[in-house]
Every structure is written in structure tokens, then in C-alpha cells.
Amino acid sequence: MTETVPRPTLEEVAARAGVSRATVSRVVNGSDGVREPLAERVRQAVEELGYVPNQAARSLVTRRHDAIAVIVAEPETRVFADPFFARQLRGISKELTAHDNQLVLLLTEDRDDHVRVGRYLAGGHVDGALVFSLHIDDPLPELIQRAGLPTVFGGRPDFNGGRGGVSYVDSDNRGGARDAVRHLIGLGRSRIAHITGALDQTSAVDRLDGYRDVMTDVDPRLVEEGDFTPASGERAMRELLGRRPDLDAVFAGNDLMAVGALRVLREHGRRVPDDVAVVGFDDMLPIAEQTEPPLTTVRQDIEEMGRLMARLLLRDLAGAPDGNTGGNPAGVILPTTLIPRASA
To answer: Which has fewest Cβ within 10 Å: 160, 205, 228, 297?
Structure first.
């Protein structure tokens, strides 16, 4: 049997530092009003004794849990298979860790999951929420609103009918799509197809709109919907070749669908880029560099999107004085960059 070593108490820290218990409590909980020499003595005593604050007791004092819910509106099979989510979660995790906050990952796939998540959020376990990969008509925003949690969304939200007041971080999906299509036109291509993402998500809608901004008189047979997965890129590419075998370029709504499209073009004996030029979206490394040929694509900084989402939420929770939501702008749009490689 091993003996359990008693945890140091607040009183022991106070005795070691030569201050009152109340002073130790204020320093440990980050409150103001303690002179720096006393605060330094308390911090030194905490380190020497290995004192760890009781989080439950601390939450009663600070009304903070130092925990953030990260909600991905996708099933786990999609989240753990798509490197996009890993990058965004990595950015969020880095920022939360730097500010000593815990990440609580919640995934939703069906109605029961939404009920579970709504119940958890309403239970007061977390200080705020970061939400991404929302689908149109998703019940999550209403559940979060009922819970009264400060929230930042990843991607332009559509649930409020376009009204302001919602904090979000997104990339310039429409502008990036325009750049992709203009690049293909600059290569002399005119029969440019588009494989869209799932059109119940604003990122896919914005990229389709960017494509249409440039291809103003596009043949509707050159547009096919996918769902951001490689399999949907394969299926869409087969449909497009069946309808318009003379197409000479494809703009895929993300790199994974572009991978699927490349596979089908190869099966049909179409040379890339000689016969058909291909452009993706995301610049998902190492995928984009390892396709055959390497993929021309539109780069968005996915990890930075995650970091910025977390940064805005933490600023909101800190109560910055210069705005309704901690001074956060309603929407932050990050720029995109076309990365030319061998596929176009």
C-alpha cells in the first residue's frame, strides 16, 4: 500500500509566507489589492509547498471555471478523419493552454447529441464556447443562447439572418474562390467546373458565390455539390465528366475533394494540368504537396483561425471595457492566398 501525502493547505501557505489566509486567497485567485512584495512571498510559498488550488472552491470565489467548450457540429468519424479540424483544434488548444484554460471537446451528430450538449452547457461547467462547422438550421446557436454563454463562432454564421452582434472568425472564402477561378482563366481555361462543399454551410456558399462572381454566365452543368470529403470529390468529378466531358478545369471547394477529383481524372486518362487544370482550397499540408501533381490551392490559415477564436473569447471573458462583447468585433475575416503548384 502507498501512503497518500496530504495536500498543502491555504493555512500552511499563509504560515510559510507570513501573511493572512485572506491574503493568500486573493493572490491565488488573481484578485487585486495585494502589495507586490507580499504577493511575491505568497507565490514563493506556493511553489515551495507545491500548493494546488482547489478548483471547485476557487470557482465559487471567481465564478470562473477556466474551461472552454469547443463544439464541433460534426460526427466524430468526420472530425478525426479530416485534418482541417485537427489544425483548428490545435490553434484553439495552443491559445487556451497559454492562458491556463482547459479545452472541453463536444461533438454533435444527431438530436440526442444536441440535447446532451445543451444540458451540459446549461449546467455551468464552462465559461464560454467556441463553435465551428455549423450547418444551416443547426439548433446549437439557440441552445448556447439559452445557456447564456459568451461564444465565438468559426465561420460566418447564418442563423441570425445576417444581423450583427455575433462574434466570429472566418477566411475570405469568396475572395479566395475568385482568385482561384481568375488563375484558371489566366491559364486560358474557359470551361471551368466547380465542386462545391456542403451547401448548408456558409463557407461552401461563399466559395460558390466567388466562383459565380467570375464565371457570370456559367453552364449549370459545370457545378456539382460535394460535402468536403474525398469520396464526394470523386463522385462529383464523375458526374461533371459525364455531363461536360469537354471541361478543361476544376475548382474544388477544398483540398480533400480535389484529391478525389484528381483520382477520377487519372482513371479517365485526363492529364493534369495539360487536359484539365485543378485548383483546391485550404492548402492542407502535406496533402497539397503530395498529390500527383502537387496541388495548386488557396491557402487559409486554419490554425490561426482557431487561435484568434480563442483569443477573442478570452478577451470577452476578461471584460475588456471598450465594447459590448469585451471589445470584440462582430466578424473577423482573415485573408487568403493563392499557392501555385503543378496542377494548374
So the answer is: 160
